[in-house]
């Protein structure tokens, strides 16, 4: 089982069911085998005792001269009989056989009675071969070596086949059942992941078992509330930013009536900064509430167009690597995201170097510059709206502080992320990761 499957709920449930099934069946087979062995041992022991009794009774009923002929009739490869003078001092090979076959001695004593002295042992430590000595009434000793069937300890092939069929059938049903149970959770996980990309995605199907229906309903309610909250916030901030354009325009007109050129210049500079912040805020809101549809984007063509735009403005943008496949994304949003990163690299590091790393799972764009970098404790803070490293609000030195926020919002809307990292030699790397 692969690592990914083992960490999933589906894989773990299958593993638990399969392990429990195999353990239960092995224990059941072990109990069945033990009971079967006991039954066969009891039956075989009774049959062997009956055969020995027949031999003893037959030999007791005839004279000693005729016994060898009768012995030859009973003699078989697995049932060898010898008749000899009794030797009370003789010892038997191996130990008591009662531990290996507890049924043979009781069966012999029951069938032959208390008039016969019986010695029983297991020879050569073989659990299937036994030696039985019976003292006849005339004092002679009957020595019988016989072998029981090895079927007692064997595993029947049909039982193993039944186990295989049972495990296969139950496993198949378990896989279907587990898939049926975990499928709603998988749909919920996919919906939660897509929610970060598109807050206006279609709601989940609320049909199914009560627990699944409740979870889907709760998710749809949460999505609707988030959508309304983001829409209300976006409309409010966009309205505020839009409404600010009117007084800014009036102030600009009035500043032109000032006779003091120096004072008029200061007013116009402040108004330009305010107007720039309003436009940046509107761009930020559009990035948050982006309704642009997904479509295949030729990343190389997009980067080359941004490179050409930069060259027209006498700026340097170098591209290394190649995008293997078109990326399914929002073209205008991606252009705004990458453009913001290129502008930052050129503004603070003279030029931008774009390194492309692409595979079937993820597209990575690294936009590097040759600037001074950013203090480690502020690498994350610079993504906050309106946060700037410079204390001044001069657009010429630091901009409005929304470029990185817009870029990260766009990256996250595509299910990816944007992080900053100081380069080992000099400069800053903006790493844009977009999952395919």
Explained architecture:
The chain has three domains: 3-152, Beta-Lactamase, CATH 3.30.450; 196-289, Orthogonal Bundle (Helix Hairpins), CATH 1.10.287; 293-435, 2-Layer Sandwich (Heat Shock Protein 90), CATH 3.30.565.10. It has eleven helices and eleven strands. By secondary structure, it is of the alpha+beta class. Helix 7 (261-288) runs parallel beside helix 11 (403-413). The model is unreliable at 88-97 and 391-397 (pLDDT under 50). It has helices spanning 3-7, 9-60, 67-74, 104-112, 157-195, 210-255, 261-288, 299-312, 331-349, 395-398, 403-413, and strands spanning 79-85, 117-122, 129-135, 140-147, 295-297, 316-320, 327-329, 351-358, 362-368, 417-422, 428-435. Strands 6-8-9-11-10 form a five-stranded mixed sheet. A four-stranded antiparallel sheet has the order 1-4-3-2. A two-stranded antiparallel ribbon has the order 5-7.
Q: Which topology of the largest domain does CATH recognise?
A: Beta-Lactamase
**Average pLDDT level:** 79
Assigned CATH architecture of the largest domain: 2-Layer Sandwich
Top CATH class of the largest domain:
Alpha Beta
Name the shape in a single word: rod-shaped
Radius of gyration: 46 Å
Give me the strand/helix succession: HHHEHEEEHHHEHEEHEEHHEE
Full CATH superfamily name of the largest domain: Sensor histidine kinase RisS, periplasmic domain
Largest sheet: 5 strands, mixed
Structural topology:
Blueprint: H1 3-7, H2 9-60, H3 67-74, E1 79-85, H4 104-112, E2 117-122, E3 129-135, E4 140-147, H5 157-195, H6 210-255, H7 261-288, E5 295-297, H8 299-312, E6 316-320, E7 327-329, H9 331-349, E8 351-358, E9 362-368, H10 395-398, H11 403-413, E10 417-422, E11 428-435
Parallel strand pairs: 6-8
Antiparallel strand pairs: 1-4, 2-3, 3-4, 5-7, 8-9, 9-11, 10-11
Helix pairs in contact: 2-4, 2-5, 5-6, 6-7, 7-11, 9-11
